Amino acid sequence: MNVLELSEQEIVRRNNLNELRALGIDPYPADEYPTDAFSTDIKAEYDDAAEEKRQVCIAGRIMSRRIMGKASFLELQDSKGRIQVYVTRDDICPGENKDLYNTVFKKLLDLGDFVGVKGFVFKTQTGEISVHTQELTVLAKSLKPLPIVKMKDGEVYDSFDDPELRYRQRYVDLIVNSGVKETFLKRSAILKTLRAALDEAGYTEVETPILQSIPGGASARPFITHHNSLDIDLYLRIATELYLKRLIVGGFEGVYEIGKNFRNEGMDKSHNPEFTCMELYVQYKDYNWMMAFTEKLLERICIAVNGSTESVVDGKTISFKAPYRRLPILEAIKEKTGYDLNGKSEEEIREICKALNLEIDDTMGKGKLIDEIFGEFCEGTYIQPTFITDYPVEMSPLTKKHRSNPALTERFELMVNGKELANAYSELNDPIDQEERFIEQMRLSEKGDDEAMFIDQDFLRALQYGMPPTSGIGIGIDRLVMLMTGQTTIQEVLFFPQMRPEKKIPKDSADKYAAIGVAEALVPVLQKAGYNLVSDMKEVNPQKLQQQVGEVIKKYKLDIEKPSVNDVAEWIAKIASERAQTEPGSSMPNVSDLSKI
Fold first, then answer.
1. What is the 3-state secondary structure (H, E, C) of 484-528?
2. Average pLDDT value for residue range 567-596
3. What is residue 495's predicted lDDT score, i.e. its pLDDT?
4. Helix locations, 76-179, DSSP H
5. What are the two backbone dihedrals, phi and then psi, of residue 594, each rounded to the nearest 5 degrees?
6. Which residues bind Mg(2+) 1 (predicted)?
7. Between the CA atoms of 447, 421, 194 and 180, what dihedral angle is there, to the nearest 10 degrees?
8. Span(s) in the chain for CATH 3.30.930.10
9. Which residue has the higher pLDDT, 84 or 5?
10. How many CB atoms lie under 10 A from the CB of residue 334?
11. pLDDT over threshold 80, residue 520
């Protein structure tokens, strides 16, 4: 790395790294370091009355230091928390050579470095449980300074709270911001509880293809890629549904998959292009059974994660205690808008949308029109868990028709905190009906609906072999984690959410500088001084520019000859000359005049 790309602190740390090596200390040792305790456990298990001092071996990152002559304190952060460590010169340097304390510990170690500590547990005079160091080992050198958060009189200073930086550099976020790790530990607990419940019920966890020849199981815009060897286009899956139902055809009682789905759509506080979903399919069940199973499952998860059936999200207390309200979608729309859509044609519903001032277009079929009304006037109003049921057939191409009304389907969506959390059906297992639904989806696609489903002929063939009555559900894991941890944005529950590319400062190539006479070695010096483009120098005083270049060379101790004022004046004159040629009317300075400055 070019030294000019480093900050002053980074240069100091690299110099410290080299000095450690010069002392014969490997800053990145390969040996196993045999830790046997964690910070939080040491504090929890401390016995004030114990006759013998407990010996421990711990390791972690230095988060703060207080050097006080021959004795010092540091705060060590391990994977579970933080603990104070007491270090004295004579304890870690029992012989005549005191370099480990005087040079390594006091001068060459930096905040963020990893060290190993062997010693005994004790309580300081102020009552803080600490580790008295008897042996100190350097385990890893940190070359970038951490944004250390400071507290004074209850006020937080230098906090690392810019979402753009936090999500892009999650590794730093986890180090310096307490509570972030807790969210992801809860996410892990949610998945463990979910798996345990499904395994106890006797269902089998499976894996299905992520690369698919046909993106099916949902209405969404897919990501497209190309397989070179087969010379075919493939799609990242938008759902696991059609493959899981093939396994039900094959004879499994119940199958589930927890995995990534991908949708080439927008990003916001509740959507990410890749997201985690759990889909479950169980034979001989219907959507009524699935509602009862789901509310008990979520109640169990909430208790496991939060210790109760309640979670607080954005100041709202949400109760996951079963049972949940059940409300047909057309009744929900009537309740919120006053319009009864029962028996209405596509054109009639289109007119209602216009009366409600909804933005619609000609590509939208009956199902999408109803979805627009529900999304605008109903969805956001359901804070407590609510099953919205009995969707019109046009909205549900993979769902069995309602047993008492063929215009509806046996489907529900679970709404919590104004968002969909789960989607479930009594699965359509009539292959002829399914084919007709797929054909209708193709009609919508031809009208311009780029989210309409493809016809999956192999799935139709599987249904023709016979699929038993089945109920299936998909639960959005990321949204579930948001609800259980009280987070309001999906980015807070994803380790590495999708981000826009980092903005880079535009810089001219060395060739453009060479065209005005700048030596290649001086290009990074000029750019460090702030002249990233040749045009940035066009109106600068040559003496000032020469002085700035000289300061950079001196500061970074570069073995580069400083240009003369005349050299700089000639660069500026050439810039002006090129500008005069491309911009008629521009005045060109006299080079001889500039050389006298």
1. HHCCCCHHHHCCCCCCCCCCCCCCCCHHHHHCCCCCHHHHHHHHH
2. 71
3. 97
4. 89-92, 99, 163-168, 170-176
5. -65, -35
6. 413, 420
7. 110
8. 182-324+384-492
9. 84
10. 15
11. yes
Q: What are phi and psi of 429, to 5 degrees?
A: -120, 10
Alpha-carbon span 110 to 114, nearest angstrom: 9
Residue range 465-490: mean pLDDT, rounded: 97
Mean pLDDT calculated for residue range 555-580: 91
Phi, psi of 233 (to 5 degrees): -80, 140
Residue 365 — very low, low, confident or very high, per pLDDT cuts 50/70/90?
confident
Q: Rg of the chain's alpha carbons, rounded to an integer?
A: 33
CB atoms near residue 417 (< 10 Å): 20
Tens digits of residue pLDDT in 473-482: 999 999 999 9
CA of 267: how far to CAs of 259, 271, 272, 554, in Å?
Answer: 19, 5, 5, 47
d(CA 258, CA 146): 35
CATH superfamily ID and name for 3-146: Nucleic acid-binding proteins (2.40.50.140)
Residues in Cβ contact with 82 at an 8 Å cutoff, skipping those fewer than 6 apart: 39, 60, 63, 75, 76
Percent of the chain exceeding pLDDT 90 equals 82
Q: Residue 245 — left, alpha, or beta (φ > 0 → left; ψ -120 to 50 → alpha)?
A: alpha
Biggest distance spanned by C-alpha atoms of the chain: 97
8-state DSSP, 352: H
* E-assigned strand segments in 308-366: 310-313, 316-319, 325-328
376 is in an annotated binding site: no
User: What's the pLDDT score for residue 581?
Assistant: 73
Looking at the chain, the domain(s) classified CATH 2.40.50.140 span 3-146
206 alpha-carbon distance from chain centroid: 25
The top-level CATH class assigned to 182-324+384-492 is alpha beta
Question: Tell me, what DSSP letter sits at residue 564?
Answer: P
- For residue 86, the Cα-to-chain-centroid distance in whole angstroms is 37
Do the beta carbons of residue 346 and residue 364 sit within 8 Å? no
Kindly report the number of other CB atoms within 10 A of residue 46's CB atom: 14
